[in-house]
Structures are given as structure tokens and as C-alpha cells.
Amino acid sequence: MFSFFKKKPPTPTEPALAPEDVASPAAPPAADAPASGGAFGWLRKPFGAGATSVADPAAPSAGAPAAIDAPLAVPEPTPKPGGARQGWMDRLKSGLRKTGSSIATVFTGTQINDALYDELEEALLMADTGVKATQHLLEDLKRRVKETKTTEPAAVKGLLADALADLLRPLEKPLVIGEHTPTVIMVAGVNGAGKTTSIGKLTKHLADHGESVLLAAADTFRAAAREQLGVWATRNTVEIVSQEGGDPAAVSFDAVTAGRARGKDVVLVDTAGRLPTQLHLMEELKKIRRVVTKADASAPHEVLLVIDGNTGQNALAQVRAFDDALQLTGLIVTKLDGTAKGGVLAAIAQERPVPVYFIGVGEKVEDLETFSAREFAQALLT
């Protein structure tokens, strides 16, 4: 569940903007400056063909942030049915079954000996656990076997689940909403990792917990990314800030400014997918972060990376690269649904322990859930 610490929203004030990040009327914009959103006005309109724009009488008439598309109505959040968490566990076990089966075969013998540990080492490495995490788990497991005087191989699997849960526990941390108004969450990830879909699912989670959300379509690099995020905004009946062909930093700046003025609980910024080896694009991400800070000196409050659970040790490389560039605060791990090996979370815990806020096993909204070290270990080794 989310951890919410509600505080009285501060009175929105106009932030002091540095000249290098925001252009003044008398001078051309600097290298980091977002393009002005004033030309778009502060508009609200319903989705759908033929919708017309109507000026918001409560908003400034000029020099305001980017256009905001607003839904017609906001329905009541749908509560999760009973047993939803158990249903989630069943889907997670199914997704990790291939890896779990390969590890489980190690414990079908009759003796606890060097051969068993050698087979287990190979199985863990094949599960993308990585060398360092595998060695840690083997040493911890041998200690537990000795301390408990375990003699049955089948019982060793339970001890391995305990060791894995303990290794993963530092990654178990709740997403905190409410310490800042709005809480600005910047989301990054490579193309194909499920970044925009995860933002849509996260929006649903937040809305179901009573949080008002504003989306920022700052992925202007990928074709149709803005439209894809717009679909999720419609599904979740939340507002979205977007500019066709606009500068990503400008969209982000305008969204944070609008979120503050409208008293939104959360502003979710969708950034362009890119590989960490594309240095010029990584610099664009750094620019977005800097410009967001100009809109709100304390922002971004969360910087999340979406990683594909199928990419194995490459996911660890992505975590390192994006963490070095953006100082990540959390991860969303997607696509743990059949072919993913899952062991990469152990490698991340051992070498770059960035908290895992959510894991996903499919495309449906309910297929994204909060991360539990114990649940994950049990699902992987059951």
C-alpha cells in the first residue's frame, strides 16, 4: 500500500526563475530554457473529436503554462475485490514459474553436498542473479543450513527463500505521497520497457487512493507517445499537459507550475525513452530535471526508472547508468510474466540497491502491484 503523509498544501507562489532556464521577453532563451507555454494559454477541454477549447476563468489570461486536457467527469474509484492480493500472487508465481522450476529441480536429490550447491550456483546464474549476489546467497544458505542442522534437501529450498527475502528486503520501500504538494514524479526508461503503460497503471493506483493526478506528456521524442499517454489520461479521468512537438523541458516545467496552481497531489512526468549509451539524450533527461527544479525548488521528489524484467543483467546496467545521471529514488520492474527470470532483482539488491516500488506481470491495470521481498522470494522459489 502507499504511505501517505498529508500536510496542508502551501500557498502557490511564483517561483524565482533563473535566466539560464527560462527565457525572458527581452532576450532569446538559453540552452536549458524551456520554450514558453504562454502561446498555448491555460485551456481546459474534454477529450474526443470535435471538442472545443474553453478558457478557464480562474486561470491567468497570459503567460500561463501549457494546455491542459481535462476529462468531463471523475468517477468514484473502484475498490479492489476481496482476495485481490492472492490473485496477484498467483499471477506472479505463474510468471516466474520457469525460473522457479529450474531452481526447484536442484532440491530433488537426497543429499546436501557440494554437488547440490554447484547445481544451485548454476541455476541462480542462469536466473540472472549475477555473480556477486549468487555468491552471497550461497554463503548465506550454507550458514543457515549449518545453524539449523538441516538434513533434507527439500528443506534447503525454504532456507534459500529466507536468504533471498533478506537480500531483497532493502528494496522494499513504500512510495510516499503528501509530503509535498504536488509530489513531482519523473519517470525514465528505455524504449520498450513499458514506461508509459506503467505510468498509466500508477495513475490508476494513485487515483484509487484518492490522489489527484496531473500527467505531463514530456516524451516528445517517440512517435505517438503523447497520444498513448492521452489514452491513459482518458481511462483514468485525469488531466494531462501536452504540447505537440514541444520541448520536453517546457512541458515538464508547465506541468509542475500547473500542478502547483491547481493544488494537485501528484504530477507524473513521462520522459522520452532512451538507451543509457545515448549520451546526448541522457543530457536531455538531466535538463528536464534541472528545469523541473526551477518550477519547484524541491522537485523532482521521486525519480523512477522502469526496467524490463526480461533484460537480465542489462537491467542492472541500466540502473547504474540512470542512477549516475539522475539519482534514482525508485524502480518499477515490468513484464515478469513468463520469460523473465527474476533473479536480476537480487543482483540489483547486491550491487545497486535502489528501492523497487512496483513490479508488473502483464498489461492489465491490476497487473502492477507494490513490491514485497517475502512475496517475491516465495513466488520465485515455490
Automatic annotation (TrEMBL):
Residues 14-37 have a biased composition (Low complexity). GTP binds at residues 189-196, 270-274, 334-337. The keyword Transcription regulation does not apply. Residues 355-368 form the SRP54-type proteins GTP-binding domain. GO terms for cellular component: cytoplasm; plasma membrane. PROSITE patterns: SRP54. It holds the Pfam family SRP54_N. Residues 1-38 are annotated as: Disordered. It is found in: Cell inner membrane; Cytoplasm; Cell membrane. GO terms for biological process: SRP-dependent cotranslational protein targeting to membrane. Keywords: Cell inner membrane, Cell membrane, Cytoplasm, GTP-binding, Hydrolase, Membrane, Nucleotide-binding, Receptor. It catalyses: GTP + H2O = GDP + phosphate + H(+). Belongs to the GTP-binding SRP family. FtsY subfamily. Part of the signal recognition particle protein translocation system, which is composed of SRP and FtsY. SRP is a ribonucleoprotein composed of Ffh and a 4.5S RNA molecule. This is Signal recognition particle receptor FtsY.
